[in-house]
Amino acid sequence: MRSVLSFPSDDRRPLSEEVSVYLTVISTDLELENLHILTPHVMLWDEGIWLLNLTACLSYWQLEAQAKCETLSQTLQRILDHMSSAHSYHAALASHPWQALLLALQLEDKGFRGLITREGRIGRNLAASLSWDIWWRCCERYVIYDATANAMTTFQQQKRAMQQAMERLTCQSPAQLKSMPVAQIQRRFGGLIASLWDMTFPSVDDRTLGRTAGTHFPWQPQVARKPLSCKRHLDFPSQDWHIIEAFLREDLNRLCVLDSFKKGERILDLEWRIVLYNLQEVLISTLFRHPHSLHHESPHQRTALLQISYAFQRTLRALPTVDTAAPWIVSWELRVTHTLPASPRSLALFGDESAEWEQLITLENQLDRKLEAYRICEDWLPEDSFAPLESKVDIEDLSTLEHLGRHRPLFLCRQPYALPQGSTSHLWKFRERIMDKWWQQGRNNTVRDYYQVLREDNMLWIYRDAQGQCHVHGIYG
Amino acid sequence: MERGKEIKGVLTAQAQRPSRSLLPSGRTLLDEFLDGGLRWGELSEWGLPWGQGLRDIILWFLARSQKEAELPCWTLWVYSQSEMRVNPLAWYARGLNLDWLRFVNAEHPVKDLKPLFLSEVFRILVIDDDGRLSADDCAFLARQARRHQQAIFLLRPYHLSERRGNVWARTRINCWHDFGQQRVFAKIIKGHRPRQITWPFEKL
Questions:
Q1: Domain annotation for chain A: domains and CATH numbers
Q2: Pick among B86, B89, B96 to test the A interface (most A CBs inside 10 A)
Q3: ipTM, 2 decimals?
Q4: pLDDT tens, B27-52?
Q5: Distance between CA A255 and CA A294 in Å, rounded?
Q6: Between 20 and 30 A from A178 (CA), which of A15, A252, A272, A343?
Q7: A477 vs B89: CB contact, 8 Å cut-off?
């Protein structure tokens, strides 16, 4: 009922398949080498303030959490406790780096230690009590990273204007104006302030917010070392995958014996830059769903070769300029772009009884498609009632949802479609009436009445909208 | 040395799996019908016309297997209908633990997901086929099921022919939904004494 009677904030919308998670850690005794255990994508925001992009390793940490019967936040907290003196850090988890930053600074300001999540009750309360001091401090730091010409001068002007306006309005905190549209902020105070405001109080759902983190946020990664690479020039051009595969296997094993590539270190992605017979260069990026150990699979390198072959096929299909036949390759460079260092033995990731978890990780790395895993979200709309399992950070109370799902079908249409005219449908059985999210952009409907309908020997799940139009939304498998 | 560690890992994992010879559904009528349940290490073939709500029957087996063991076994559902997606809330409401359940969409499961079938991670596999699996595919699946002691469900979107069989499936069952009577029927074609049962649809 809580979700029906109150208008949920945008933060509580479920995430799409592309899940972004950022962690901000404020600590004086943590170094880059420590934080690289969690992810290779680390940014030093300010002295003692680190931003970590966990997106690339999220599935891996979720599996680790599940293996230990923990939530993601508990697992990360355990690891941070181990790396730092217990609780001498302030950390925040959110789907956007800016929100994670603000939250961590508020934690530091309040003197709370440990890790909190933006989605949790404490995180939401802290976000609602954001102070102007912290916000301006964060904005000034942001502008330093902004590559736009005269960004600081522009910002100072806009800042003065906004501070004067807030004084006149006696606005004590940014949250008091959180419902102000970004367009109005932009009109009154300028584009730079508006974009910072939009990140703080997003007008889009988490899915879009997480995606824009990559494009609008001035991410400047700390590079631990030069990427590992090896080159090969073939004696003769080849288009035979068996020959290419054999050479690739050799190159992967050559990488394993490089001094700078430590045993136990795991790779997250590979770049295979090939040169074709016509001197065209093609970059083939190979991503691993979980950190993968080349040393462990030496010398056969089955997993890496499988993923490279999938990426190769995908790239060939996408390239319009390459002939339909397999291209002739003359040389290449194989490069390991991101790695995760070996975890300390004392952390005992996955534990001794971990054979099945390790096998699952290896298996997911060998497939050319993701295995779908879901968590339930506390939302009444069918398409919003679930999210990828990677987005689960805390334990959720799902007790209200079980009855709701009992009469719903096992399968949903990816996109509801209008009920076709023509054949008759019968046995209309009313199932539920729910409110549509009419306040969201692009949604005009207010209510949905769901029916279980028999049509041409198929049991469909159909809803009738406020205009009386019927849409097929699911099928009882 | 590495091979030794690998074997030790596999043996440790297998030793920790509960030794069960049958996979029951948890529904007395169906379990009696199947003489206790389905056998591990075998491929079972089900004729479940699409869109009749019959896949709930398979969920009984999955939910029961997750409840029985201290450590739930990994379950995979392979579906081939690309225009559909699973509705996790409905699966959860029918008693499944989503943490131990994975889904994957594949038009040609055996061809597209070969490493998956060669692995023993998933103890229960459900292949919701749209009619593309061949006899060779079934032979491969039966072999893998026997090797890894998995329970593999092959769901066909049509009624199974009693004349034209599948030598690789040890158990073959047809199910159908009589909308007029509002009852579900199940008929054994192979694997047990041929017989038929029925129950009200609302029991699903």
A1: 7-216 (no CATH), 228-366 (3.30.1490.100), 407-475 (no CATH)
A2: B89
A3: 0.88
A4: 999 999 999 999 999 999 999 999 99
A5: 9
A6: A15
A7: no
